[in-house]
Amino acid sequence: MSEERFDDDWIDDPEMVAIVAQLAPTVVRQEWAETQTIDPEYAERLRRRIAGRRRRRRSIPRAVRWVVELGAVAAVAVAGVLLYLHYRPRLGSPAHQTTTTAMSIPSPSAGQLTKSYPLAGGVGGGGIVSPYVSRIAAFQGAAYPGRLTLTGTHLPSLPRHIWAYELSSPPRPLASYAATLAHTLKIRGSVAHATVPVPLPGGARRELFDAVVQRSGTAPNAPLHSVAISSFDGRLIYHDTTPESAAQAKLAIAPAAATQVARAWLQSLGLPGPGMPLIAMAPIGGPAGSPRGNIRQVELNWPGVHHSDETAAILWVDAGRRVIEARLYPTIEKHGTVYLRSVSKSWKQVKAGTTPIGVQVITTHRNAPGSGTLQSVSLEYVLTTGTHGKSYLYPTYRFGGRVQLQGTKGPVPWFALVPAVK
Amino acid sequence: VQHRPGPDARTEAWPDLLDRARNDRAAFGEIYDLYLGRVYAFCLARTRDRVEAQDLTAQTFERALKNIGHYESHGAPMSSWLFRIAANLAIDRARKKGRTRNLGNESVPEEGQTAQPELSPEQQVLEWERARYLRDLLKALPGDQQRAVRLRYFEGKSIAEVAEVLERNENAAKQLLHRAMESLRRRTRGEVLHDV
After folding, report:
1. Contact flag A37-B3 (C-beta cutoff 8 Å)
2. What gap in Å lies between CA A294 and CA A318, rounded to an integer?
3. pTM score of the predicted model
């Protein structure tokens, strides 16, 4: 390695030096303080005061305890193996704690970042129901092409670091997972492998699915009961188009009951339904009192995640308290801390037009320039899928406000998602 | 149980533990076990007094228990919330009474290294977290670069002194420092540690 020559009056990177020198005293105090130990008796007394006594085992003869413990360990091991074989890596939520070393997370692509932007096109829905395409609409947005001038000075204080999440990989072998799910969901049939073009704006992506498909008839539109899992990202697509009875169709289900049905259904698949926060619950649309008018869409998110561009689970619950459609993403496998960029620098990027901005599209003014203001800044996760089927919840800053486009009557909402990880 | 942060100082509670802790004191006990060492270290670094740090730690957890029903993480680690409570309490205490020292023969950092009194609780927490971040970055450097940075910028030694301690010539010492700082800058992707 060649050796660089430095002048006598050399000064190293003044900005970094200033930062290191400024933080040095805190680092020293921190290192010192972390070598100190709190008085254990004091700690235990305090614990009793605020959290009650620790649960202790009763004193029982050692031999008896040994036998009981051995039996318990064996039972737990057997149960664990059975559960693992049954549900593979998706079972339930992760442990209560995990070590969070600074997490490395791939940045979202432009397409991943803008998928929740105002509509450029929709995929799914309509036509003959395919086991591999959800009827739950998946929209792919795009950046607004017109030039926007945005202003705003008040930027809120946001956390300096935050969790990022890594989702479980698609279970292997996928076929046995599909078979297990089909058994639980009472779908009869064998597992089929299919490579299917998944429609995306401007083309299609070919994804390998393992699915169990049951049709009640030979016609293409015969009632379908199916479950399919994508090997691309572990996404699960469920359909049950069996018509409900006429009596059920007249009765709308109560919103709370729909949520309850959705959560119980997820739990029956080994997913943490009860711990998943409710994000939205609404009728999917259709004449009141009609079967479609009585279907409610329930959106539940990953435990602890409240703002994300995709939700962990979207289910349709019909008036007969049946789940008739579902699109689910894998559970969280682990989380880790990521440090966040400065909000003000990200806002400068938005103002400079170097990051995609979404605007409510108005057909006749798609490219009109406009000027707008910043009204809100928040953190929002973007679902990204990297290589080898690993998906992540990546933190972004969401800047939002209203913009007046030239030639239009009133201001319309705009927003921009900017990658927030340093 | 030794309540010392140690190498697991980055472990954070999962959201479902937080949810359970809202209504279950036993679950809050798990949070206490997880964060006690870190909260105590934070308090001790502020007070430099064991007894006062213990009192402050107790008050922090008592207040956290009282307010956990209203706590919203918004994705931020729970440690930040607990540190902010502790920093607020420390400021209140400092206002109410003068500090006392009760460390016996223990050597403590110099007076000049104490927290700046004008820092708000949020700034104190931010600085604490930035310091931890800097420690993470430093740990990733080769050993001789770490030593050079510590000697030069933590202990204020001259280039000649750094070179002498490291048994190298001055140019080699400058090169170590240069590479270390370059590496720190690269790892922060140009977004230095002092932003906003």
Report:
1. yes
2. 6
3. 0.57
From the CA of A313, how many Å to the nearest CA of chain B? 18
Q: How far is CA A307 from the centre of its chain?
A: 9
- The model's pLDDT over A277-317, given as tens digits with 9 standing for 90+, comes to 888 878 877 666 666 778 888 999 998 787 889 999 999 99
Beta bridge partners of A20: none
User: CB-side exposure of A286: number of CA atoms within 13 Å?
Assistant: 15
Q: Is A345 in contact with B6 (Cβ distance < 8 A)?
A: no
Tokens 């064991």 found at: B50
Q: How far apart are the C-alpha atoms of A51 and A45, rounded to whole Å?
A: 10
Segment A314-366, tens digit of pLDDT: 999 988 889 999 999 999 988 888 888 889 999 999 999 999 999 876 555 56
Residue A299 phi, psi dihedral angles, 5° rounding: -115, 125
Is A318:A301 a contact under the CB 8 Å cutoff? Answer: no
Cis amide prior to A173 (ω within 30 degrees): yes
Q: Cα–Cα distance between A417 and A116 in angstroms, integer?
A: 9
Closest by CA position to A25, among listed B154, B41, B137, B192: B154
> Which residues 79-138 in chain B show a CB within 8 A of chain A?
80, 108-109, 112-115, 122, 126-136
| Residue among A289, A255, A261, A256 nearest A273 (CA) | A261
Closest approach of B96 to chain A, Cα-based (Å)? 23
For residue A416, give Cα distances in angstroms to A291, A312, A358, A383.
37, 22, 6, 15
Token pair of B32 as six digits? 């206490």
Asked whether the beta carbons of A163 and B75 are under 8 A apart, the reply is yes
Residue A305 DSSP label: -
Q: Could B15 and A51 be called an inter-chain contact, meaning their C-beta atoms sit closer than 8 Å?
A: no
Task: With CB atoms and an 8 Å threshold, state whether A25 touches B113.
Answer: yes
